[in-house]
Amino acid sequence: MLEMRPGCERCDVDLPPDQTGAWVCSFECTFCTDCANDDFQRVCPNCGGELVHRPTRVGDALRKHPGSTLRIHNPPS
Ligand SMILES: [Zn+2]
Ligand SMILES: [Zn+2]
Is residue 69 a part of any domain in this protein? Predict the structure, then answer.
């Protein structure tokens, strides 16, 4: 099951689990659309893997399994 991390690792913008616009790699490094497309060309800067669109989680599924609240933020060095 995806963690559904709450924000972009690069710019810390909110990425709610029930909204589109989040991109993840196989390790679930999580980025917003701007960072994933413009900065990284859909390649994860941490592991080199493909960034794909994260599916949304809505309704009962989201109530039973709310997204992660642990914010991971690694601003550009
Ligand atoms: Zn971002
Ligand atoms: Zn990664």
Answer: no
Residue 20 CA to ligand 1 centre (angstroms): 13
**Which residues, in sequence order, are CB contacts of 19 under 8 Å at separation 6+?**
56
- Ligand 1 center–CA 6 separation, angstroms: 12
Question: What pLDDT band is residue 75 in, cutting at 50, 70 and 90?
Answer: confident
User: From CA 62, how far away is CA 77, in angstroms rounded?
Assistant: 34
Token pair 């493909």 in the structure block, residue: 50
Interval between CA 27 and ligand 1 midpoint (Å): 17
For the chain, the domain total comes to: 1
In a domain, 55, yes or no: yes
Which residues span the domain enclosing 7? 1-64
* pLDDT tens string 6-52: 999 999 999 999 999 999 999 999 999 999 999 999 999 999 999 99
CA of 71 to the centre of ligand 1 (A): 13
